[in-house]
Structure formats: structure tokens, C-alpha cells
From TrEMBL:
<keyword id="KW-0547">Nucleotide-binding</keyword>
<dbReference type="InterPro" id="IPR049832">
    <property type="entry name" value="BREX_PglW"/>
</dbReference>
<dbReference type="InterPro" id="IPR011528">
    <property type="entry name" value="NERD"/>
</dbReference>
<keyword id="KW-0808">Transferase</keyword>
<feature type="region of interest" description="Disordered">
    <location>
        <begin position="825"/>
        <end position="844"/>
    </location>
</feature>
<dbReference type="GO" id="GO:0016301">
    <property type="term" value="F:kinase activity"/>
</dbReference>
<feature type="domain" description="NERD">
    <location>
        <begin position="12"/>
        <end position="130"/>
    </location>
</feature>
<feature type="region of interest" description="Disordered">
    <location>
        <begin position="618"/>
        <end position="641"/>
    </location>
</feature>
<feature type="domain" description="Protein kinase">
    <location>
        <begin position="194"/>
        <end position="491"/>
    </location>
</feature>
<dbReference type="InterPro" id="IPR000719">
    <property type="entry name" value="Prot_kinase_dom"/>
</dbReference>
<keyword id="KW-0067">ATP-binding</keyword>
<keyword id="KW-0418">Kinase</keyword>
<dbReference type="InterPro" id="IPR011009">
    <property type="entry name" value="Kinase-like_dom_sf"/>
</dbReference>
<dbReference type="Pfam" id="PF00069">
    <property type="entry name" value="Pkinase"/>
</dbReference>
<protein>
    <submittedName>
        <fullName>BREX system serine/threonine kinase PglW</fullName>
    </submittedName>
</protein>
<feature type="region of interest" description="Disordered">
    <location>
        <begin position="498"/>
        <end position="520"/>
    </location>
</feature>
<feature type="binding site">
    <location>
        <position position="563"/>
    </location>
    <ligand>
        <name>ATP</name>
    </ligand>
</feature>
Length: 1558
């Protein structure tokens, strides 16, 4: 194609790109309708500036082409393309087809707006013909070499109506000219920064560019926010708010774990606002980091990264900032540039302990509430609207909490969920699902996130942490980041090695002093301070709890806190803090220095402060754990008033009085010392628990006390006096200090911060007459002191400082008078001051009453009281905590019946309600509703219908409050759909089923709808009519003719179709289908709806029934006019289980879909073929592995068109379309009715952990629930016989479970645990093979831990990782491939067969030769010499063929012998196959594969030792690659450092073939 027809808009900057374009140009025809444009940009309607490598107009259509000059090979892992360069480096890339597809659609839209509607296809072209493309089939659609691309472009169109003629080609050229495909330099400049040509990341409303400063040697990341062309004011305002919100959060919150904002330009770019960030050129996203460097991380390193994230989020929450959308893409990973002693380090070591920064704060909230709940008066300064989620990147979807888009989602729970999902990612290396829709369906189905289902040998504590943080019901999650960190500490304790012995400590004494920032438990800093644990990281320092080894000699308290400056510049802040604190006289109300002067250790500045947490912390917890054999969640050791407010809500009246009096006393003391604290807030008021269990409050953190008064903006927003900095008040003053005191008192009294106006403008911009003082949260105050508090705060928080309290003393007197007046009018508690005495009845025989040997705990006493209530029971006797009781009294509720009658939605939104208190009240409300038979059994009861009406009314009010002006704007109709998507399933059921008339004339119709949708009746009973009822079955149940049902149903279909709620539901279902690859099971859609919409019904079966009713109603509406249907349904009548019988849904081709979009019938047919394949696989004798499953399903021909399913989705759909198949998390296929005995054997669920040194009577053992969880983690859909001819998901307990365990080979017996009185399993003989010691399975050796913690040497770190995996794998079944340097084979075998690992070495060559010798006995023909000659005969010759026959027979003898060794009773350790090259030499890799598969089914493990020149390269036997499953961690590299025992001996010098490990 010549110039003119081929238009080069911009000359390529890169030679490789120029060569690729030339290679394509030479092969394209130079005739109509062919045209091409290369290297141009266009601005999409969204505002994104898009770069296009090549656009070609061909007879078959228009195609946009992305050129990639990659070398080496390209594979796919978890949806990410991995390029392996010829040098062996791995480079992750997002699938380029996704971006070019988006750009093609955007260009097609612009072409249509400029006179020519045409479909623009997309393709990726690899210009290097030598690139080895190893992508799965679903990723190869649209991927071509140059020759393949030209051949594709020359193909005729599938549909002649889409053929491009010469006239069409000229019209497309004219439309492109109108669009303006030119390069504008103005679009690549923001302030003094020049942007690179291509953005390296983008989201729906923003694009990130790497940029260089025009005058300074400085690199930055520039985020440009983009407003869609022609969008209305609402959308433009939303984009501007997102940019302003992110800038405001990052300007206020500076932290080393958060991206650093350099500048904010509200109008810095022609497309919209721009933010300039600090940027390290080697920054990776967290998912990219794990793909490149994850294999080098041990579990301790992974949990250290989790701690970084959690500590950053805790610091953010203490500043009342909540991210709300944590995801892999929002975490930046930056390599460490220096070692712990400041020395230079290598690239590998730099990535082993990187620094994490959290980015993407565009939908963050700055909350004004210190308590739980998300709808308090002081909610937020930058309240995200219903449009906020549109600003998130598409890759974030699987990580987002289910309730993110709810109108009143609690941001604390959102961040806890995000931390839990990121922990799952860091541990497994994989996202929890491909999309949020897929994850929601799994959560509702009861499949919690359990990392151990993908990673062998994990501590069960990690599973518990992830599950506690990611429970799909927010109220069941950990209630705060503090609780998350406490559980994380438990995980770290289970992984951390014991302290070093004295001899080891002496040996380490010669090493350079350790950087205090990197200290871990057991370290001794400065020869005096023994580190107990890390407390957290703030913006200037990192805090450690330490034990003062010289405390007794110096007569000081044993525990202290060391604050370590994060850098030299931040060390100046600590020096300033020490100078201020050093001037203060000792006072128990203010934190004190342990050492008067700052410390200097290893070049760091430190402060030694007194510890103000739980002083009972000592060795008590450890002693108790050792005695009882339990490892419970550690006692909470650091408590602040802020945490108490978040969890328990406002303070009770007597506590409020005491806390307020303390605060006034502390501030009065500081005034006497001429010191302003300048950061008074609940987070800086610690609660000290003395050894005698008494409490006192301590004011902490004097880091701002030394700031000059002129710097009046220093402090925490919300507590800063907003009227300082005016002409009359130019510096910080005592009024500002007392303002912070007043705000803190207000937060204690209400759980909320005061507000100024509606929060839309700054306080000083509000009208002086309309807003003379802050709006106080009067409704949240206790009634007895409400009036007094309102008057107090209106004066203390007046905008005019002259009208506030003039001094601290009158302010304190006014505070005390409030409580004095209250005590003289009403009692301070609803409890009776004269309780009736409890009279104990003596026994009938006159004997003495014997008290319980072990009195009940407080929680047990409350549960006992709660289980015995009636409607008339007073709340003081109902088992509530004081906080919950006090809160309910404030609402006027005094009895259990009153609580049951109170609206659940009003209770949820009540002000001043703490997270834990809310959870407790909701739990008791559900418990008592069920106990007293007042729980909602069905939404179709009169009470259920009334609650539905109330929900719709409340939804309208809430939406208006949250959306504010948006709800009243002209575009509010677009938001109604979002609001309707919040309607619960209970309310939808009342919409579907018409209300019964007074004369019952419509009773048949009401009952017909209820039965067809399979909704519960008023008693909560589901119709026994099948999960997807047929019309004839409904007719039989109602005794009506078969023709009457369609008549009534047609009327209902028409009614449903008109309802906005049903229209919104239909759109939501189609969105879910699109997110799930255009086809999904009805149950999968229903489960996702159940999580999104919610229901008051608690039973899983009822919840699913309600969700399926919603799906069924939409399917019925769609079938009203079949020719207009946009999706199709196909039932699965052959299914053995109801969840499968509901069938499949598939999206059909719609207007605007690509020409290669598959049709719904084609997708459904393909899914059913996958289902039949899955059923066939379940009938195999052994459990098919993921490799087998993917090979079998991948062999099926997909329907015409583009099917974009990853491997997991392919297997899940096959299981969903089957009659009796299900998939494990590892993509194995199993029958749903898999025998329980076999499931127990495959999961090794009967192995009991024994804790050394703990008596048998106190061993934790295995509970029935533990066994159930282990089985469910591997086989989530397993069903067992129910004894009535049917099946159930409920696994057996007691005797049946014990019998199944014994049948599976686990000799276990149920015993009662002495201390907890609970039943658990222990080995019948404590020395049996059904047990193992935790010290070996869950703890590393002392030396290993030391190397992991202290060494920067990547070789030693690699040795530790290998050792951990070997020790863990040695106690499990399964297959492992071990690669070792061929010169270290003998040493490796010696280490592997040592008692510590205990492998049994078996020479494959020896077995093969023995079998061959047995085939040629002496004095027979052929002779052994003849056989040896045949071995080296020419391939294909008669001798070679004859030898192959003998070899095949010999392998037939070898395989059974190895299988015998793999049986459970054949030995204790794994079977280690050595000298295994004969597998490859004599064409027996299939034998090896079968043996590996046998090992995966249970019994002993099978290990294959594969010597090779470089152990880091993928395993091979000779020149033949060894198959293994990467997802199961089956390849273990044995570096030279492990073979030489360097990690255990401490030797750092390696000799021999060290260079081969590069």
C-alpha cells in the first residue's frame, strides 16, 4: 500500500514499531476500499486521549491494531499476560486486547457521531515472528503474527451487510478528518510537567501518565481527571468532586504508607483537574509485584506486607479517613533502596522487603463520626454520592466489598473487607474471583475465602483472619482495623520462630547493630530494650512495645514504648516533642518520658515513653496458652477513647462525667505548665489498665505541642478551631485549645462530631445569623442530660470566640453542673435501685447448697439471661451489655417486646450507635424474634408487607439525604435506578405477589404467583414443587385447569414489566450476566442478588428461594415477548440437585454488540456440552486433576464468535450445566455425592495437631466443625445421604462422623476437653499416625527464623523458603518436583532422607533395570547383550521397536511397585524418586504423570528429584519438560544454599557452583 492510501499521521519514535508497520504496509493491497492510518491520537467522549498504532479499512470491516514487539515467549497467569524475555526475566502485561477493544468502541462512537456508523474491530499483532505464543485458547482470539493479521484482514465479511465499499471507505476517511486525528502538545503538559505520550494506567474517569519536570531532574505521576464530552452538570461535578476529594484527603493525611501528593491543579489540563504525585520509576502494582517476585516471598514476608497495609489504614482511620475501595491496583509496591544498615543491596533483596503505598483515594470519606454507622449527623466532609463508584478502575471489581454502592455502607467495614481480600491475594497470589458477581455468588453459597484451599501447609490462623475480615455480612466481620491487627499478631506469633538461645545471641553480638525500624519480637535494642511487638506506624515514627531490661535496677515500670523516627527529618519532630515533655512535671494524667533525653541507636532517633496500655500484659498470656493448649485472640492491650467510641458508641452518663472531668484536669495541668497540646482528640486519650484492673486516662502524643503558634493549621481537621486565622485571631490561642476540648466532649457524649451547616462549605463561609454555633447532635445525647449538653455546646462551640467560655474554669464548672442537675431530677440508670433479693431454695433433704465449681463468665451469664426472656422482660434483665442497654433506653425502649416492635431500619440508622453495640443489638433482636416466634418468616405476612412499605419510604429519605442537590436536579431520574437497586429481596417479593383483596376474590392469582415463584407462605414454609416450578405443577396444586395458569400469568407479566423496580432488577441481572461472561447459572445470579439486595430471612434455603423468585420473575417478563428477549433461560431438568435444576441464563446479541458476539443458543449449547463432559469426568475412578479437566473441556469446540472465559470460568460453567458435578477451588471436578469417606481421605481432614507439652486432657484436638470446614474448603458442594432417601449439605456429626473417619483410616475418638467441656477428636493412641506436632508444621526452626528476619542475602532467603515448603509438604500427600544443581544431587538426597524430612529414596533407574533383567532370564534369548545393542539401535529400526516393547512391559512392572509404596500404610514420609532420567529416555513420562496423579489422591507424597544445570529453570528430565501444577505449588527449587545447610548453619559463604544459580 502506497502513501496517500496509507497515512502516517505521526512518524514512529521507535525503530521496532517502524519495522512492524512497514512489514504490514508491504502486504496490504493498494486499491479501494483499502485505507490505513498509523500513529495517531484521538480524544474519546470520556476525555481520554487515545493512542492508536494502526487503523485499517478493509472490505471485511474496520480494524484497530495494537503492535507489540515482544521477544521470548508469552503465557497467561490468572488473566495477566507474562512475557518471558530471552534473558529469563518475567514481565507482566495486562491483556492488551481489553484496552484496544475499549479504544475501538470509543472510536466507533465518534465515527457514528460524525456521519459514518461502522463497527470497529480490534486485534493485537506480534511483530517478532520468533515469539513463542503459549496463551490459552480464550486469550488467542484477536492475536496474530504479521502474516496472520494480513490474512485476517483479507477475509470477506461474515455478513455481507457489513461489507465496506469504496464509498464507505471515503466516508470513513471524512469522518476521521472531522474527529481530528492530530497530536496536540497542549494535551501532554500539566504545569511544569511534560507528560509521556501514552498513559500507563487509566480508569473510567481518569488517566495516569509518567511525566518529567521541564526544568528539574524529577519524575512524577500525573493523574488527569476526565469529564465525558457532552455530559450533564451532575457527571461533571462528580468528576471534579472525585479529584478534589483525593487531593483534600492526601493534603491532610501524610503517611509513608500513602502516595505523596505534590500539587493539585483544579484546571491543570484541558480535559479536567490534574494531580501530581511522587513517583518511583520502578513502581509496580501489587498484583504485578506478586507475579514477578511472589515466588521469592516466604509466608513471613507476605504477612509483613499485610501489616504494612493494616498499619497505614489504622493511621488513616484515626484521622477519620476511610479508603472504601482497597484493591490490588490501588497498592503501589516500591523496592527498598538501601539495606538495614544503609548499605547498597541487590535487586532481589530490594524486592523482598518493599515499601507499600496506598493510592486511589478518589472515593474516600472524611468521616465526622467516631462511632459505627454511616449515617450520623457528622458523617463526612466529602460524602461520596451514588456516582462515586464510577471513578474506580475496572480491575478493582473482584476486591470491592459487596455493600460498596449501598446508600449507607459503613466505611470501616469496607476497609476491613479490603484488607482481608488483599491478605488473600498476598497469601495465594491470586485474586479471589474473576469478577465481583462471581465472588458474591460464592459468598452467598457459603464458600468463604479460605487461602488454604489453594495453598498447602498454611497456618489455620491465616484462614481465620481472612474469613473474619471478609464475611459477606458486614456485622459478622471484624469491627475495626485494630481488631484486624490483633488477629494478625496471632498469625505472626504462630509463624515466628522462638527466641534465640544464649549461645546464638552471643554469636550475633558481633554483628552490626540492627536498624530499630526493622526490629522484631526478641530483638534487644541498645543493649537495654527487648522488643515485645510492633504497635504501629504513624506519619513520623514507628512505635514498639519493649521490656526495659534495666527496669528493676532503675526502679521503673518494666514495659515502655519506643518511638523510632522514620527518617532524619522526622527525627527533629521527636526532638521537639521530647523538649516539650521534658518541661512537664510528673502527672498521671499526661504521658511521661522514661528517659529524659532522646536515644540514638544505629543512627536513628528514638523516644522512650511510658506504656499506657494494659499493664497486666506479661508472660501471663503465654503461660495460660501453654497450660490450656489454646491460642485465643490476644487480650486487647492498647485502648483509646476513640476505639471505645467506635465500637460501643457514645459514653454512658456516669462514664461521660468521669471522662470529662479527667479531660478538664489534664488540660488544666497543661495550662499550669504553659503548654498547649494542640491535638486533643479521643485518639490521643489512652486508657491505662493497671495490674489491679483499675483504669485511668492518659493524654498522649505531644508531637504538635512544640509547633509555633503562628502555624495554626497544624492539627486534626474537625478538632481545629475553624475560625482561627481571621484578622482578629492570627495565631493559635487558648480558645482553640478549648474548642478541641469541646469537640472531644461532644464526641464522647454523642459518638458524632459537631457540624457547621450542611457541610457543603467551610464553617467560616456559613451565614453568621443562621449558623451562630455548630449544630450539635442533640438526638444522640442521653435524655437525662440532653438539655444541659445542648446549652453547654452551643456556648463552647460558638463561632465568636468572645461568646464562648472565657477561661477553662467556668467551662469546667458548667460541665459539672449538667450532671449535678441531672442527679437531682432523675436516677442515672433505668435499673431499679432496690432489686428484689434472690432467695436460694434449700434442697429438699435439708443439705447445703453446693455452688458451681466453675462460675459462668460474663458473656455466658448474658447468654443465659438472653435465652430465658419473654416479651415483658425488662432490658436490665435481658443479658445486654451496659452500652447496649443505655443506648436502647435513650430510644425509649425498656422491654424485649419494645425492641422487637422497633423498626430495624430506624435502629440501624440511630445516631450515637457504636459498631459492636449495633451488632449486639441486631443479634439479640434476631435471637429473640426467633425465640418468641416473632421473627419474620415470610415477607408476605402483613408485618412483612408493612416493613416493605417502610423500607421504600426510608430509601427515598436516605437517598435524598445522601445525594443532596443531585437528587433534586434534572438528572435525578438517572439515579432512581440506582436507588431501586437497593430494594431488598423481601420488598421485591411483596411487589411480585399482589396483596389479597378484602373479599379474597384474587386468592387464586395470589397463590399462583407465590407457587410459581416458590416463595414461602406466612408460616415460612417453601412450596414442595421444585426449585423452578412448572406451570402444570402449579395448576395441579391449585386444582385449576392447565390453561388457566398462562392466562393469569400473562396479566402478571404485563404488570411486572411496567414496574420500575422490576426494570431495575432486569438491568441488574443483565449486568451480572455480562460480568460473568454472558452465561451463568440461575442460582449463581440469585446468590449474587442475595448478597447485593439482602433479606431478613436467615436460612440459606429461604434466602436463595427469595433470590431465585426475583430471577424467575424477570425471566417470565422476558418471555412475554420472546422475539424482543435480550436473554434466554434453559432449565436443567436432569440435575440431581435443586441448585442445578434452576438451569442457565445467557445473554443474546444486542444492538451495539460486536459482530463476533456469540448468540444465546450457541452459548447455552456449549455450556450443556461442558456439563456433559463434567459428568463424564466424575465417573472416572480417580479424581481428575485441573490439567485433565482443562484438557478435556478445552477440546470442545466453542460456539461461533468470541468467548472470553478464563480457565476457572470454563470449569465452573461445566459444573453448573452438569447433572451431578462440582468444581473444587483447584479446578478439580468431583461428583456432588462423593462418598464422605473418600472426601475425608483426600482432604486429610482427620490429622490432629498436637501441641507439645500440653496435657492430653487440654489438647485442642479437632472438633466436628473443624473437620466440616476442611472438607467444605476442598469440596464446597458435597452432599451426603440424609437417611430419608434424599441428600443434604449438612455433614454428619457424632457417631456417623466418627465411623466415616475410621473408615478413612483415621483412628480418632471423641473426648471432652477438660477446660472448655467441649467435644473434640483425639487419636485413639496418641502416638498414632493420625497426629503431628505443631512445632514442625507451623513453626520454623530458630535458625531459619533468624535468617528470614535478618539476612539480606537472597540465597539464604531462598534456602529458607525451600526448607519451609519441604517441611510442610513432607506431612502431606500430593506430588512435588524438586530441581537441584546436578553437582549437588548426592548431598540433596542425603538432606531429604534425613529424619527431619524423612523421605524414602527410590532409584527409578534401579527399578527399571531390575524389571528389564527379569524379562531376559539367563540362558534365554534374547540375551542381555542383545537388549543393550537394541537400546542404541537406529530409531525406527526393528531392534529399536523390539526394545520399545520390552521397555513398555518393564514399565508395567515398575508402576505397580511405586504405587504400593504410595499407600498410606507403606511408610511415614514421602517417596523420593531419584535417578529418574529413564522416564524421559525410555518414553515413560505418561507413567510419571499417572504416579503423580495417584499421589494427589491421598496416601504418601511422591517427590521427583530433577537434577539440572540451573535449578531456577523449569524442571526437565534431560530435554523433556516435567509436567506439574503451578497452582498447587508442585515445583520446589532447591538452591545450593539449602543443600549446603547455609540457612541452618549460619554460613553465608557458598563455594563450588554458586555462579550457576544466577
Amino acid at each position: 500500500m502506497r502513501e496517500g492510501r496509507w497515512t502516517t499521521v505521526t512518524e514512529s519514535e521507535f525503530d521496532h514499531e517502524h519495522r512492524g508497520l512497514e512489514a504490514i504496509r508491504e502486504k496490504l493491497p493498494d486499491s479501494d476500499p483499502w485505507r490505513a492510518w498509523s500513529n495517531f491520537t484521538f480524544t474519546a467522549n470520556t476525555g481520554h486521549v487515545r493512542e492508536v498504532d494502526l487503523l485499517v479499512v478493509a472490505p471485511g470491516g474496520v480494524c484497530m491494531i495494537e503492535l507489540k514487539d515482544w521477544h521470548g515467549s508469552v503465557t497467561s497467569e490468572n488473566g495477566t499476560w507474562i512475557q518471558t524475555t530471552p534473558g529469563g526475566h518475567h514481565r507482566p502485561h495486562g491483556n492488551p486486547l481489553h484496552l484496544v477493544n475499549k479504544k475501538a468502541k470509543e472510536l466507533a462512537t465518534l465515527l457514528g457521531q460524525n456521519g459514518r456508523r461502522v463497527w470497529v474491530g480490534e486485534a493485537v499483532c506480534f511483530t517478532d515472528g520468533g515469539l513463542r505464543v503459549r496463551l490459552p485458547a480464550h486469550d488467542q482470539n484477536g492475536v496474530h503474527t504479521v502474516a496472520e493479521l494480513v490474512a485476517m484482514l483479507q477475509q470477506p465479511p461474515r455478513d455481507e451487510r457489513r461489507r465496506i465499499t469504496a464509498i464507505d471507505s471515503r466516508e470513513i476517511k471524512t469522518a476521521l478528518d472531522r474527529i481530528g486525528i492530530r497530536r496536540s502538545e497542549a494535551e501532554y503538559k500539566v504545569g511544569p510537567y511534560q507528560l509521556e505520550r501514552k498513559s500507563f494506567d487509566s480508569g473510567p474517569t481518569w488517566a495516569d501518565y509518567r511525566a518529567g519536570h521541564t526544568e528539574l531532574p524529577e519524575v512524577a505521576r500525573v493523574r488527569v481527571y476526565l469529564s465525558e464530552r457532552g455530559s450533564d452538570a451532575t457527571l461533571r461535578r462528580s468528576v471534579e468532586n472525585a479529584a478534589r476529594r483525593e487531593a483534600a484527603v492526601l493534603q491532610r493525611f501524610r503517611h509513608p504508607g500513602v502516595v505523596g501528593l505534590k500539587q493539585y491543579f483544579p484546571s491543570g489540563h484541558s480535559a479536567g483537574p490534574a494531580l501530581i504525585f511522587d513517583y518511583h520509576p520502578h513502581t509496580l502494582r501489587l498484583d504485578e509485584y506478586l507475579l514477578q517476585h511472589g515466588k521469592k516471598l516466604d509466608i513471613l514476608g507476605r504477612m509483613a506486607l499485610v501489616r504494612q497495609l493494616a498499619e497505614t489504614m489504622r493511621s488513616a482511620h484515626s484521622s477519620r479517613i476511610h479508603h472504601r475501595a482497597l484493591a490490588a491496583r490501588s497498592v503501589h509496591v516500591i523496592p527498598r533502596d538501601r539495606g538495614r544498615q544503609g548499605q547498597a543491596i541487590g535487586e532481589d533483596a530490594a524486592w523482598l522487603t518493599p515499601r507499600l503505598e496506598i493510592s486511589d483515594w478518589q472515593i474516600a470519606t472524611q468521616r465526622g463520626s467516631g462511632s459505627g454507622g454511616a449515617t450520623g449527623q457528622g458523617m463526612t466532609r466529602f460524602a461520596p454520592t451514588a456516582l462515586s463508584a464510577m471513578h474506580l478502575s475496572e480491575g478493582s471489581d473482584p476486591y470491592l466489598a459487596p455493600e460498596l454502592t449501598a446508600l449507607s455502607a459503613d466505611p470501616v467495614y469496607l476497609d476491613v473487607y479490603g484488607l482481608g481480600v488483599l491478605t488473600y491475594l498476598l497469601v495465594t497470589g491470586k485474586a479471589p474471583a474473576a469478577s465481583q458477581a462471581e465472588l458474591l455468588a460464592r459468598l452467598e453459597a457459603g464458600e468463604g475465602l479460605r487461602p488454604s484451599s489453594l495453598v498447602d501447609g498454611l497456618s489455620p490462623d491465616i484462614d481465620e483472619l481472612v474469613q473474619a475480615a471478609t464475611a459477606y455480612r458486614p456485622g459478622q466481620r471484624l469491627s475495626s482495623v485494630d481488631e484486624f491487627l490483633e488477629m494478625l499478631e496471632l498469625v505472626e506469633d504462630s509463624l515466628t520462630a522462638p527466641a534465640a538461645t544464649p549461645a546464638e545471641a552471643e554469636a550475633e553480638s558481633d554483628t552490626p547493630e540492627k536498624d530499630p525500624l526493622e526490629a522484631v519480637a526478641g530483638d534487644v535494642l541498645g543493649g537495654r530494650w527487648e522488643v515485645r511487638r510492633r504497635l504501629g506506624t504513624g506519619s513520623t515514627s514507628r512505635a514498639f512495645l519493649v521490656r526495659d531490661l534495666e527496669a528493676e535496677a532503675r526502679r521503673k515500670r518494666p514495659l515502655a514504648v519506643l518511638k523510632v523516627a522514620l527518617s532524619d527529618s522526622r527525627g527533629d519532630v521527636l526532638l521537639q516533642e521530647a523538649e516539650v515533655m521534658g518541661r512537664l512535671r510528673p502527672d498521671s494524667r499526661v504521658i511521661r518520658l522514661v528517659e529524659p533525653e532522646p536515644l540514638h541507636i544505629a543512627g536513628r532517633t528514638l523516644l522512650a515513653l511510658e506504656y499506657v496500655g494494659d499493664e497486666r500484659e506479661s508472660s501471663d498470656d503465654a503461660a495460660e496458652a501453654a497450660e490450656t493448649g489454646t491460642r485465643t485472640r490476644p487480650r486487647r492491650r492498647e485502648e483509646t477513647v476513640a476505639r471505645q467510641l467506635r465500637e460501643r458508641g457514645r459514653l454512658q452518663m456516669d462514664q461521660l462525667e468521669a471522662y470529662g472531668d479527667y479531660l478538664f484536669g489534664a488540660v488544666d495541668f497543661l495550662e499550669g505548665e504553659s503548654v498547649w497540646h494542640r491535638d486533643i482528640k479521643p485518639d490521643n486519650i489512652a486508657i491505662r489498665i493497671r495490674p489491679n484492673r483499675t483504669r485511668e486516662l492518659v493524654l498522649i502524643d505531644f508531637s504538635l505541642a512544640g509547633y509555633p503558634a503562628k502555624e495554626y493549621e497544624a492539627g486534626t481537621e474537625g478538632y481545629l478551631d475553624p475560625f482561627i486565622g481571621t484578622l482578629t485571631r492570627t495565631a493559635y490561642d487558648s480558645h482553640a485549645e478549648r474548642y478541641a476540648v469541646a469537640v472531644t466532649l461532644h464526641q464522647m457524649a454523642s459518638g458524632e462530631l459537631p457540624k457547621w451547616g450542611d457541610g457543603s462549605v467551610l464553617p467560616r463561609m456559613t451565614d453568621q445569623k443562621e449558623v451562630p454555633h455548630a449544630d450539635v447532635a442533640a438526638d444522640a445525647f442521653e435524655p437525662a442530660v440532653r438539655d444541659g449538653l445542648v446549652a453547654f455546646f452551643q456556648k463552647a462551640l460558638h463561632r465568636d470566640a468572645s461568646k464562648r467560655f472565657p477561661e477553662l474554669k467556668p467551662m469546667r464548672d458548667a460541665w459539672r453542673k449538667i450532671f449535678l442537675d441531672a442527679s437531682q431530677t432523675v436516677p442515672s440508670s433505668h435499673r431499679s435501685r432496690h432489686p428484689e433479693p434472690v432467695v436460694e431454695q434449700p434442697p429438699a433433704d435439708g443439705g447445703h447448697v453446693i455452688a458451681d465449681a466453675e462460675p459462668l463468665t460474663a458473656d455466658q451469664q448474658r447468654d443465659k439471661l438472653a435465652a430465658a426472656v419473654t416479651r415483658e422482660t425488662h432490658l436490665s434483665s435481658a443479658g445486654l451489655t451496659p452500652a447496649a442497654e443505655s443506648f436502647l433506653y435513650g430510644l425509649g425502649i425498656t422491654t424485649v417486646g419494645g425492641l422487637l416492635d422497633y423498626s430495624r431500619s430506624k435502629l440501624l440508622n440511630a445516631p450515637g450507635l457504636g459498631t459492636k453495640t449495633r451488632t449486639e443489638v441486631q443479634r439479640r433482636q434476631r435471637q429473640w424474634g426467633k425465640l418468641l416466634r416473632e421473627e419474620s418468616l415470610s415477607p408476605l405476612t402483613p408485618k412483612g408487607r408493612a416493613e416493605a412499605k417502610e423500607e421504600l419510604a426510608q430509601l427515598t429519605v436516605t437517598e435524598s439525604a445522601v445525594l443532596g442537590a443531585l437528587a433534586a436536579s434534572a438528572s435525578a431520574s438517572g439515579l432512581t435506578g440506582h436507588a431501586l437497586r437497593s430494594v431488598s429481596l423481601d420488598t421485591l417479593a411483596t411487589i411480585f405477589v399482589p396483596e389479597l383483596n378484602n373479599n379474597r376474590s384474587n386468592s387464586n392469582k395470589v397463590e399462583m404467583v407465590r407457587l410459581l415463584l416458590r416463595l414461602p407462605n406466612e408460616r415460612g414454609e417453601l412450596p414442595d414443587i421444585g426449585v423452578w416450578p412448572k406451570q402444570k405443577d402449579v395448576a395441579e396444586s391449585l386444582h385449576l385447569s392447565a390453561g388457566r395458569i398462562p392466562q393469569m400469568l400473562k396479566e402478571e407479566r404485563k404488570r411486572w414489566k411496567k414496574l420500575p423496580a422490576v426494570q431495575a432488577l432486569r438491568e441488574e441481572i443483565m449486568d451480572l450476566l455480562a460480568g460473568l461472561g454472558r452465561v451463568a447459572s440461575a442460582v449463581e445470579i440469585a446468590d449474587a442478588l442475595a448478597v447485593r439486595r439482602g433479606t431478613q430471612l436467615s436460612e440459606r434455603e429461604q434466602r436463595r428461594a427469595l433470590a431465585l423468585a426475583a430471577v424467575r420473575a424477570v425471566v417470565e417478563v422476558e418471555q412475554l415477548e420472546p422475539e424482543e428477549a435480550e436473554f434466554q433461560h434453559q432449565p436443567n431438568r436432569k440435575a440431581t440437585e435443586e441448585s442445578l435444576a434452576a438451569g442457565l441464563l445467557a445473554l443474546d446479541v444486542r444492538d451495539g454488540d460486536a459482530p463476533d458476539t456469540p448468540t444465546a443458543p450457541g452459548l447455552l449449547d456449549y455450556a450443556m456440552r461442558l456439563g456433559r463432559t463434567a459428568d463424564r469426568l466424575t465417573r472416572q475412578g480417580t479424581l481428575p486433576t485441573a490439567t485433565t479437566v482443562l484438557n478435556e473441556m478445552g477440546a470442545l469446540t466453542p460456539p461461533p464468535g468470541l468467548v472470553e472465559w478464563d480457565e476457572r470460568r470454563l470449569v465452573e460453567l461445566g459444573a453448573a450445566a452438569s447433572a451431578n458435578a462440582a468444581a473444587t477451588p483447584r479446578l478439580e471436578i468431583y461428583p456432588r455425592d462423593l462418598p464422605l469417606v473418600r472426601a475425608l481421605r483426600l482432604t486429610q481432614a482427620g490429622l490432629v495437631r498436637l501441641i507439645p507439652g500440653v496435657p492430653e486432657t487440654r489438647q485442642p484436638g479437632l472438633t466436628g466443625e473443624d473437620i466440616h470446614e476442611l472438607v467444605r474448603a476442598r469440596f464446597p458442594e458435597l452432599v451426603v445421604p440424609d437417611g430419608r432417601g434424599g441428600s443434604t449439605h449438612e455433614l454428619p456429626t457424632g457417631g456417623p462422623l466418627t465411623k466415616a473417619l475410621r473408615d478413612a483410616g483415621f483412628e480418632l475418638t471423641l473426648f471432652t476437653r477438660e477446660d472448655t467441656k467441649t467435644l473434640r477428636y483425639l487419636p485413639t493412641r496418641m502416638d498414632s499416625a493420625s497426629s503431628y506436632l505443631t512445632s514442625g508444621a507451623w513453626r520454623q526452626t530458630t535458625d531459619t527464623g533468624a535468617v528470614t528476619r535478618y539476612s539480606d542475602d537472597p540465597l539464604l532467603a531462598g534456602a529458607v523458603r525451600a526448607d519451609e515448603r519441604l517441611v510442610s509438604s513432607a506431612r502431606q500427600d500430593g506430588y512435588r518436583v524438586l530441581t537441584v544443581h546436578h553437582g549437588r544431587t548426592v548431598d540433596a538426597v542425603r538432606e531429604l532422607t534425613a529424619p527431619r524430612i524423612g523421605a524414602q529414596a527410590v532409584s527409578v533407574t534401579e527399578l527399571f533395570l531390575e524389571s528389564m533383567h527379569s524379562l531376559v532370564p539367563p540362558a534365554t534369548k534374547p540375551t542381555w547383550e542383545t537388549l543393550l545393542k537394541a537400546d542404541v539401535a537406529e530409531p525406527g529400526s526393528r531392534g529399536a521397536l523390539k526394545f520399545a516393547e520390552y521397555a513398555t512391559t518393564a514399565w508395567g512392572k515398575v508402576e505397580p511397585r511405586v504405587r504400593e509404596l504410595l499407600k498410606p500404610g507403606a511408610g511415614s514420609g514421602p517417596v523420593l524418586l531419584t535417578e529418574a532420567g529413564v522416564f524421559a529416555r525410555y518414553d515413560a513420562m505418561g507413567v510419571l504423570d499417572r504416579l503423580g496423579e495417584a499421589a494427589r489422591q491421598g496416601g504418601r507424597g511422591l517427590w521427583l528429584l530433577a537434577p539440572q544445570p540451573d535449578p531456577a529453570r523449569e524442571p526437565r528430565l534431560g530435554s523433556v519438560a516435567v509436567a506439574y501444577q503451578a497452582g498447587l505449588g508442585e515445583w520446589i527449587e532447591l538452591p545450593d544454599s539449602w543443600v549446603k545447610n547455609a540457612h541452618r548453619s549460619g554460613a553465608a559463604q557458598l563455594d563450588g557452583t554458586e555462579g550457576d544459580n544466577k
